[in-house]
Specification:
5 helices, 6 strands, alpha/beta, Rossmann fold, 23% strand, six-stranded mixed sheet, single chain, 150 residues
């Protein structure tokens, strides 16, 4: 299922954010929690494979992907790795109700494939703060990349 919420009614000028979780109530709750942030368009997915297809088509427009760790067909870490291969600049937040202490998680964090980690249950204020931080970091990263190309 794909749900869309455009905060400014202009998808072409918006920064795209994906929320990926196999639980429909979670994606709706998180969409509502961050939906008032200006300049973003939110796509929600309960199927990580469908999310990856959409992100692949729109890879240059995505700025942030919020993904659950444990999902059928494709784990959150697998999804994030594939997304970073498509666009290394997209910011990522991994969330889970389980401890993520394995070696692969540590490697992905060290390589900045995972930019932030939120443990469920997530306070909505913490989610909004982290999303704002990641959007700000994306803008700084974009400016830095622009300056290097000059």
């Amino acid at each position: 299922m794909v749900l869309l919420l455009a905060a400014d009614n202009s998808i072409s000028k918006s920064k795209l954010i994906a929320i990926v979780d196999d639980e429909d109530d979670i994606v709706k709750l998180f969409r509502d929690a961050i939906g008032k942030i200006n300049g973003i368009t939110i796509f929600t997915f309960t199927d990580p494979v469908l999310a990856l297809e959409h992100i692949n088509i729109n890879k240059q427009k995505y700025v942030l992907v919020i993904s659950d760790l444990r999902m059928p067909a494709l784990t959150g870490m697998e999804l994030i790795k594939k997304i970073k291969e498509l666009n290394p600049y997209v910011r990522t937040i991994l969330m889970t109700a389980f401890a993520a202490e394995d070696d692969l998680f540590q490697e992905y964090t060290k390589k900045e494939l995972i930019n932030a980690f939120l443990e469920k249950p997530i306070r909505l204020g913490d989610l909004r703060a982290e999303v704002n931080y990641q959007l700000h970091t994306f803008e700084l990263q974009k400016e830095e990349s622009f300056i290097k190309t000059k």
